[in-house]
Amino acid sequence: MTFWTYILRCADGKYYTGHTKNLEARIAQHQTGDVPGWTSMRRPVELMWSEAFETREEAIAAEVQVGNWSRAKKEALFRGDWERVSAAARKPISRYAVSTSSTATRNERDGEMSGDDTPPPVIVLVRPQLGENIGKAARAMLNFGLTEMRLVSPRDGWPNPAAGPAASGADRVLADAQVFDSVADAVADCAHVYATTVRKRGITKPVVTPEEAAREFRTAEGRSAILFGPERSGLETDDVALARAILTVPINPEFGSLNLAQAVILVAYEWSKHQALVSPPSVDQPKAPAPQDELEGLIGQLDAMLETTGYYFPPHRVHVTKRTLRTLLTRPGWSSQEVRTMRGVLSALDGKKRPRE
């Protein structure tokens, strides 16, 4: 089988580096926006360079290498200007200095090649039972920028037709998922392995929360992997024994039950906090508060209207009632427009505003 490393130029002039086992199909997906995230928002894209390799590991290593090159060095590569490539050479980059998940690295997004990105963690599902749960886990991963899934002996085999609909569009994660016969094989290239469990297993290992683990992912050298066990029973003791640390969440001791996708999303969310993902749009800033004299006019108008209705009763409570109303009306920080609107409402209620013909 042939694996490819490639570079795309996006509509905004920035470059995206990735790897794939089917170059033609992957480029078509980028061009139609079927690859969620970076390139789907910057179409059209153009293939600038590609190279074939015999193994996925070689393609990943090439992605890491060229993905961290400067813009000038990439463009020299496109032209075949090897003298310029050599002149722009930097200190060699370690194999896993950036993401191996075919996504634009943070320094690419910023237009600068710093070479210091941390690879995202690998999600390893150990003996997953239902295809639907694998799909939901893929959806949870992609929501928060994780794309590399590894499966250890899935019960119903792989691929599983039930996974696709449950993934709700996270097909990229499923398409690139790798299958292994054992946990040891699945994490062989990972220096930091975390086992997710809420039960004590009689094994003495460091215990961390998802937040603490996410900090370690970003600072550790080498790849990190998180193990998630089968839906019914969780990880076995022998699985946990392969890990360097136990990852757990504070949870209700009377009901410590998370489904697979929930567990994945807790970890993925903590990782995403320091990634350049799309944030919810900010709300409009509130208008400047109305001047005090406008607010006093509103309060005075309401007070006059209430006086004529007999609202202030009994007499000894009048002061307290007026103070409560003033507190209510001053609490929101009314804008001038809001004050005018409310006074218009009061005028209408008082009969001073005539219905429009």
TrEMBL record:
Residues 97-121 are annotated as: Disordered. Keywords: Cytoplasm, Methyltransferase, S-adenosyl-L-methionine, Transferase, tRNA processing. Residues 1-76 form the GIY-YIG domain. Its EC number is 2.1.1.200. GO terms for biological process: methylation. GO terms for molecular function: methyltransferase activity. It is an enzyme of class 2 (transferase). Gene3D superfamilies: 1.10.8.590, 3.40.1280.10, GIY-YIG endonuclease. Homodimer. Catalyzes the formation of 2'O-methylated cytidine (Cm32) or 2'O-methylated uridine (Um32) at position 32 in tRNA. Belongs to the class IV-like SAM-binding methyltransferase superfamily. RNA methyltransferase TrmH family. NCBIfam families: rRNA_methyl_1 (TIGR00050). This is tRNA (cytidine/uridine-2'-O-)-methyltransferase TrmJ.
